[in-house]
């Protein structure tokens, strides 16, 4: 859509997998995906997609990561899920290697940008990832709501039950602790007495196990409450859901929507992402068009 | 600050009082305040402040109201608190009377705009009214977050306790039903067996009445939870509080802040408005600079 996006590289560092793509205009011309390690592997993968695309060098590189970060310095801060990335100066390192401007942002914000630039293209919406954790990205009037330091959209850490179960963030009763995949897996494993993934807990619920069913129903109720809260605060045109747990939307969706129905005035429009796993990757590609100047390359 | 604001009229329609002011640049040159009635009284008061200011006619008129509204049509929709305003075509009526562009917006959004244009002038903040009801206005990157139809910022209607007390909006356990002045007055009167205002319930709490104390403590906890939720979702630089209940901030503030402390990661900056009761009035004056073109005068 914009000049800077001609021949751009996008990098989506996930908790388990990293995706790298070369994009020309709106078309992915080359891509790699591999288990998440550190910056050396990302540098190498960028080299590979450049070669596959037949480009000498990219116009820009955009990187999304599921970690707290210093946007001004382009550095990832301490994050237990990404041990190889603690303190890594992402933008400096990649700028040095590929001699082009590099942009870094939160992965859920990237997914929202992906929807804005390549997906449904609405101007007022929220993107919500329902996965191991729960994250969000907010667009208002066609612009990203970044917050004071770029950390806005932390919908997973709104406290719904002050006396609820502990969250990885140190607080209690966060939405993520009630409805996130990691929590569902942990609480399901405890309740059923065997090690289960979130997907397996959902499958057990679907097959009628009462313990799993109660846990899953509670998670859906909490997610619906979180969506209703977003709706009242932001009045988005649309709420877009992505992330692994939406793979079971046929079973989970009606429960989530029933909860939204009792907790929101009006009827929020809710749909699943049409970009699949690529929302964050495509958003990373489009970062140069959306990152505010104070956080852009210097 | 901007040309359109030379010789502007601001109108703040409150649940009990209406304020009208003539503002030149940043200075209020004439003002009127009177018990809220209908549009005839507003028209008359505008005439009076124009005469007092010595203006033939205003450049613009901005109106804030605590009611749902159709921004496109400049019309106030059904609102039990404002019986004289149901269905009134505010912008058309005033445009006809004063032959200038007229703008209409929600009063809490106006208060946020007042802070942006005349108050602390931060670029990422939330304004929160803690009064009979609870409302909010959101500014991100120096721009108002309006939502799809201009109704964003309804922080009073986020559900914190799905099984909590009924709210005037028809839902249960909304922040407003837990911490708003009307709810505090009603629940306090029930608990103490006599008709009390919210201010009186707070005074009883301050003097050590255990029932009043428990109710007020619960309201402060809920407000703190709401503020923490805003912080996680929006990461504002600042949260500004206004409204009648902040008059007792010396007693209430520490309880609210303690709740924020346990429910937000990080330390949100929170301060009371420095514009007193004029935040909404001044924001109404500045509306021409902030209302998006699709909702402006035609």
- The total domain count of chain A is 2
Largest sheet of chain A: 5 strands, mixed
Radius of gyration of chain A (CA) equals: 19 Å
Give, in spatial order, the strands making up the sheet with the most strands of chain A: 3-2-1-4-7
Strand proportion of chain A, as a percent range, falls in 15-25%
Helix content of chain A: 25-40%
> What distance separates the N and C termini of chain A?
24 Å
Series of secondary-structure elements of chain A, N-terminal to C-terminal: EEEHEEEHEHEEEHHHHEHEH
Oligomer type: homodimer
Highest CATH level, the class of the largest domain in chain A: Alpha Beta
Counted by DSSP, the helix tally of chain A is 9
Gross CATH architecture of the largest domain in chain A: 2-Layer Sandwich
EC number (chains A, B): 2.7.1.2
Keywords (chains A, B): Kinase, Transferase
GO molecular function (chains A, B): glucokinase activity
Enzyme class (chains A, B): transferase
